[in-house]
Design goal:
The chain is α/β, with parallel strands linked by helices. It contains 18 helices and 19 strands. 49% of the residues are buried. Bound molecules: 4'-deoxy-4'-aminopyridoxal-5'-phosphate. The site of 4'-deoxy-4'-aminopyridoxal-5'-phosphate has 13 residues, from helix 8.
């Protein structure tokens, strides 16, 4: 999309000014405003003129005329993939036509959950209108339809991850439940006093709490891989943590708080070399990059359907087939048994062994539709377009005075965490909401990594392939407006 096609923020449109990127650049040139990350002191506030007015006065003075700024071409350093039409894609998502506070909805909370394409919504309706039944148990037509749809979704999940067999795909509620399942089944079976479990500093609470519970229960030790100041894993220190006592390593492929893409394949290999098993948390990766569990070679891989354009309440635990079959079940009940007497129980093999009770049949089918949809768009297109958007947004946000980006690893996906000097993160979130922009502000269920950066909270815009440069422009223009309302200078 060319810059001229972008829809300017309404405030800018009213002023008849060029795009925010140019304005932001101009502001930093004219005011000599320092780069992001400088230290600011709110008590040293200076009465800088209102940002947009200032541009207007300069314009009158003939220093710059609208349209003469050279910022736009420089911003297009990375090109969007040819043939990817974001406007066409957006039409598939009914909720993106929603208005919030009188403004078009700008959904930049994709790391929390993604919006659903019509294909998923209609697939759910079709299931309830034509197929609804419990699965596996009855001889009637609807049971056959529902079972086929559910097992097709399992096969789609297998193909999506390139797992070797559908038996390696266990449907669960989401990433959280998948990790708890492994901790409570394999973990209880194998972790003993004195054993070591390694997680990274980047982890979501979902990949800390279940291991901490297990370690406390068993007298095992939880160790943490540190990260550098950009938020990337320190591999040497990781290597030093690995040893004969390491039984399990569990880490994320993409950090939900910083966006860091970890060197997952290398980390898995290092853990295996030390004799440990590995769980990779794919909650934030599967919607942004192609995942191949055979190449990754993790023993378990988990993700949530709702973060990959599917329904809530459904997710996947991938586990190597032999390992799943050798692991004790987690919950007991119907569906997972082969034979029951009061004296002894024989379980089915994986995956049924881990799917006790009536599962979330319809949403599994919906997840299958979401994965079909993602495949139609093409993961390579998604990754390339998001990379372009992330570069575009990162560059614009750097130009907001007093904005500190949190998470600056060279390899990042989707997440643009930041704090704005002089503002609580919640204030920024509310100001953005007024303009229809949905972002998360808070600790993102990843308190340890935020504290590593001396923070309790950040504002976290997070991208998906239906976001546009115009939406980023709106986000950044609000940040500039906030900055202008509370000007500050460097100390
Ligand atoms: N891991 C990561 C990295 C996440 O971002 C999340 C969700 N924010 C989870 C695990 C947990 O996912 P869910 O709440 O869908 O179970």
């Amino acid at each position: 999309m060319s810059t001229s096609e972008r829809v300017p923020h309404p405030d800018l449109a009213a002023l008849g000014l060029p795009e925010e990127a140019a304005l932001s650049k101009l502001a930093s040139q004219l005011y000599g405003m320092p780069p992001a990350g400088s230290s600011w002191n709110k008590t040293d506030e200076v009465a800088a003129p209102f940002y947009f007015q200032d541009y207007a006065s300069l314009e009158k003075g003939g220093i710059h005329a609208p349209g003469q700024l050279s910022a736009a071409p420089q911003l297009a350093a990375v090109a969007p993939p040819a043939g990817f039409d974001v406007e066409l894609v957006r039409r598939d998502f009914p909720i993106l036509s929603e208005r919030v506070n009188g403004r078009p909805l700008i959904w930049l909370d994709n790391a929390a959950t993604t919006q659903k394409p019509r294909a998923v919504i209609e697939r759910l309706a079709k299931f309830y209108e034509h197929e609804n039944s419990n699965i596996h148990r009855a001889a009637h037509e609807l049971a056959a339809r529902a079972t086929d749809a559910y097992e097709e979704a399992r096969e789609k999940s297998r193909a999506f991850l390139n797992a070797g067999s559908p038996n390696e795909i266990v449907f669960v509620r989401g990433a959280t439940e998948a990790i708890n399942l492994v901790a409570q089944s394999w973990g209880r079976q194998h972790i003993q006093a004195g054993d070591e479990i390694i997680v990274s500093h980047l982890e979501h609470h979902a990949n800390i709490v279940p291991w901490k519970h297990l370690a406390d229960e068993k007298g095992a030790v939880l160790k943490v891989i540190p990260v550098d100041d950009d938020g990337q894993i320190l591999l040497e220190q990781y290597a030093n943590l690995l040893g004969p006592k390491t039984k399990l390593v569990s880490f994320t492929q993409v950090s939900n708080a910083l966006g860091t893409v970890t060197p997952a394949q290398q980390m898995v290999a290092m853990a295996h070399a030390a004799g440990a098993l590995v769980l990779v948390d794919g909650a934030q990766s599967v919607s942004h990059m192609k995942v191949d569990v055979q190449a990754l070679n993790a023993d378990w891989f988990v993700f949530s359907g709702h973060k990959v354009f599917g329904p809530t309440g459904i997710g996947v635990l991938y586990g190597k087939e032999e390992l799943l079959n050798a692991t004790q079940p987690w919950q007991g009940g119907g569906n997972m048994i082969e034979d029951v007497t009061f004296e002894r129980i024989r379980y089915q093999k994986a995956p049924n062994k881990f799917e006790a009770g009536t599962g979330n049949i319809a949403d599994a089918v919906g997840l299958g539709a979401a994965l079909d949809y993602v495949n139609r768009i093409g993961m390579h297109n998604i990754a390339a377009y998001e990379h372009y958007l992330l570069s575009y947004a990162t560059r614009l946000m750097k130009e907001v005075p007093g904005l500190r980006q949190i998470g600056t690893a060279p390899d990042k996906a989707s997440v643009l965490s930041f704090v704005l000097a002089g503002y609580e993160t919640e204030e920024v979130g509310k100001a953005l909401n007024k303009e229809g922009v949905a972002v998360r502000s808070g600790h993102h269920c990843a308190q340890p990594i935020l504290r590593r950066f001396g923070l309790e909270a950040t504002v976290r815009p997070s991208l998906a392939f239906y976001n546009t440069c115009g939406e980023i422009d709106t986000l950044v223009s609000v940040l500039h407006r906030l900055r202008s309302a509370r000007p500050i200078k460097v100390v």
